[in-house]
Amino acid sequence: xxxxxxxxxxxxxxxxxxxxxxxxxxxxxxxxxxxxxxxxxxxxxxxxxxxxxxxxxxxxxxxxxxxxxxxxxxxxxxxxxxxxxxxxxxxxxxxxxxxxxx
Length: 102
Prior knowledge:
The chain has helices at residues 4-10, 19-41, 47-70, 79-100. By secondary structure, it is mainly alpha-helical. The chain has one domain. α1 runs antiparallel to α2 and α2 runs antiparallel to α3. The two termini are 16 Å apart.
């Protein structure tokens, strides 16, 4: 079974900004996109494999979210931007728990 909602919920794109926050956010966003692509390519893989990839995707998305929170001013993010990202991650966590048991 494909974890499409998990992939869609976890994808968070970094907002353009300056200095190290920008490069950190861009690098982490690339990792999130790569993990999302991997999960999408695993649509016919065993659920255990999809769950492992999904767990990695959520971890990468959480790291990106932490960067965004720590660099909110530099990335010119609003409180609403951060709240929406938190909600996406919570939804991904819930779907992961429902599908993968953890």
